[in-house]
Amino acid sequence: MKHGLGLVIGKFCPPHRGHKLLIDAATHQSERTVVILCAKPTDTIPGELRGRWLREIHPTVEVMVIDDRYDKNDSRIWADNTVRWLGRAPDAVFTSEDYGDRYAELMGSKHVLVDKPRERVPISGTAMRNDPYANWGFIEPPVRAWFAKRVCVVGAESTGTTTLAKTLAGLLQTAWVDEYGREYSEIKLARNDPDWRSEEFTAIAEEQTRREDDAARRSNRVLICDTNAFVTVLWHRRYMGSHSHAVEKIARRGRCDLYLLTGEEIPFVQDGLRDGEHIRHEMHRWFEEALAAQSVPWKTLRGPHEERLREAVRLTRSLFKESAWSPKAAGV
Asked: Is 207 helix (H, G, I), strand (E, B) or coil?
C-alpha cells in the first residue's frame, strides 16, 4: 500500500542521481510527493534554479523552495516547520541519512531509509560539489548545462573555425554548436535577399544562444561552439556599419570560458557564400580588439590545422583540475 504524502528534504546543491533515486523511491511509494529544497542566499547555485531543475527532472512532484535560516542539527525546529510548510505531517519521510529517524518520529511519520551506504548510486553532495567534472555521470542534463565549460572558436571568414570546432568536439567526445548565421545566410541567398537588416542579427544571436544552451545539456563536460552572440556583434558591425545594442544585450547574457581565435594567415577559400576576402585581415583585427577588451581568456591559434588542434586541446584541458576528468585527445 502506498503512503499518502511522501516527503524528501535537502539542499540538492546540486541535484545528482543519488537525489534522483531518493525522489523516485518516494514517488513510487507515495500517492503524493513533496520535495522541500533548503536554500541560503550564500549558496553557489541559486535555490530557485535548483528548484526548476528538480521540477524538470521530476515533473510529477511538488517542489517547495524555502529560506534555510535554521539550525541544521535541531530536528524539532525542522519538524515543526515542515508541518507548517506542508499544512500537515507527511505520512513518510524518505532520506539516506540517520537524521531521518528522529526527524520523522517528531512528526509522527514513517522513516524510509534509501541506499544509506551509497551502494546503488555511489555519490554524495560533497563529492559532487568538490568536483562535478569527475562525477559527470551522476548529474542530469539541466545540471550539466550549468556546469559545462564553454569553449568558443571564433575568427574571420575562411580561417578554419568550423573545421577546428568540429574536430575538437570529436576528439573530446562532446557536443558542438555550428554557426547559425551561416545557415541563415544560405536561406537569404536561396531567396535572393541580399540586403541585411539589424533585426536579423538580433534573431541570429538569439537562436545561436538558444542552440548553445540546448547543446550544453548534451555535452561531455565541455561544449565547443563555432561562434556565439559575442561574435554576432562584430558581424552586425561588418554588414550594418554600426553596433547593435540589442545584439550586445544578448551577448552579455552568454557564457564562455575560453575563446580560440583562428589566424587569418591561411589561404582564403571561396565556397560560394563568403564575401569578405577583401576585409578578412581587418576583421581579424576587430576580433583581436574585441577579445582584448573583454574578460574571458583567449588565444590566437596559428599554423597548420594539426598544430592549431594540439594547442586547442591543451588549452581546453587547462580549464579542468588535474584530479578531474581531462579530455582524451588521441593522436594529438
From this structure: helix
What does the DSSP 8-state code read for residue 21?
A: H
Q: How are the residues of the chain apportioned to helix, strand and coil, as percentages rounded to the nearest 5?
A: 45, 15, 40
Q: Residue 192, by phi and psi: left (phi above 0), alpha (psi -120 to 50) or beta? A: left
CB atoms within 10 A of CB 292: 8
Residue the block writes with cell 524538470: 56
List Cα–Cα distances, 34 to 58, 64, 101, 237, 240, in angstroms.
11, 7, 18, 51, 53
**pLDDT above 80 for 276:** no
Q: What Cα–Cα distance (Å) separates residue 60 from each residue in 24, 26, 28, 50, 78?
A: 10, 11, 11, 16, 24
Q: Which whole-number Å values give the CA distances from 124 to 5, 6, 15, 19, 143, in the listed order?
A: 26, 22, 10, 9, 15
Average pLDDT of the residues in 278-304: 94
- Strands of the 149-154 sheet, one edge to the other: 176-177, 222-226, 149-154, 258-262, 298-301
Average pLDDT over residues 39-64: 97
Q: What is the pTM of this model?
A: 0.90
